Amino acid sequence: MLSIVVLISGGGSNLRALLEASEDAEFPARVVAVGADRDADGLEHAERFGIPTFTVPFTSYPSREEWGDALLEQIRQWEPDLTILSGFMRLVPPRVVEALSPWLINTHPAYLPEFPGAHAVRDALAAGVTQTGASLIVVDNGVDAGPIISQERVEVEPGDTEAALHERIKPVERRLLIDAVLDIANGHIDLEELARA
């Protein structure tokens, strides 16, 4: 059974989908804890499913490195096989990446390497593209630059707003995430091999 810590910053829709999937006794993974860098609404999903939560507020530490050390300490208490950044809006410091890699993955609302960074959906609209997408990657020390696990295109429709487009990307992100967790748990995806490639 694959044990998972999920880190969020917002509403946690991917987290909720993962929690719902793991209610199935046949699903080979379990979320053991959910962490956040702020008082995130998505922590309520964890509480509803009886999953422990922790918060490591970025603003409570004098540097990103010290915040990262505190975050890593919290994650390590749960001894997860896999840590998922899902809507986690902070770059984790290199020490955290090095400690958890390659068992540290991230969902991203664009077809990487297109539109990395925190405003991927807005950037896609500003660029006037007809397609964007969703990606799942192994986290490295770049900005959304790690090895791609899976990705899928999403059409940009005429008159799309940032909110409307993001709502169409989210279900694709959720599906990619759940499929990848299944494949990692079942040995069909080898994160170590991906990270070496």
Automatic annotation (TrEMBL):
Keywords: Purine biosynthesis, Transferase. Gene3D superfamilies: Formyl transferase, N-terminal domain. It comes from Leifsonia soli. InterPro entries: Formyl_transf_N, Formyl_transf_N_sf, GART. Pfam families: Formyl_trans_N (PF00551). CDD domains: FMT_core_GART. Belongs to the GART family. The lineage of its organism: Bacteria, Bacillati, Actinomycetota, Actinomycetes, Micrococcales. It is an enzyme of class 2 (transferase). The record marks D144 as: Raises pKa of active site His. Transmembrane segments: none annotated. Its EC number is 2.1.2.2. One of its GO terms (cellular component) is cytosol. GO terms for molecular function: phosphoribosylglycinamide formyltransferase activity. Residues 4-181 form the Formyl transferase N-terminal domain. The active site is at H108. It comes from the Bacteria. (6R)-10-formyltetrahydrofolate binds at R64, M89, R90, L91, V92, N106. One of its GO terms (biological process) is 'de novo' IMP biosynthetic process. This is Phosphoribosylglycinamide formyltransferase. Catalyzes the transfer of a formyl group from 10-formyltetrahydrofolate to 5-phospho-ribosyl-glycinamide (GAR), producing 5-phospho-ribosyl-N-formylglycinamide (FGAR) and tetrahydrofolate. N(1)-(5-phospho-beta-D-ribosyl)glycinamide binds at G12, S13, N14. It catalyses: N(1)-(5-phospho-beta-D-ribosyl)glycinamide + (6R)-10-formyltetrahydrofolate = N(2)-formyl-N(1)-(5-phospho-beta-D-ribosyl)glycinamide + (6S)-5,6,7,8-tetrahydrofolate + H(+). Pathway: Purine metabolism; IMP biosynthesis via de novo pathway; N(2)-formyl-N(1)-(5-phospho-D-ribosyl)glycinamide from N(1)-(5-phospho-D-ribosyl)glycinamide (10-formyl THF route): step 1/1.
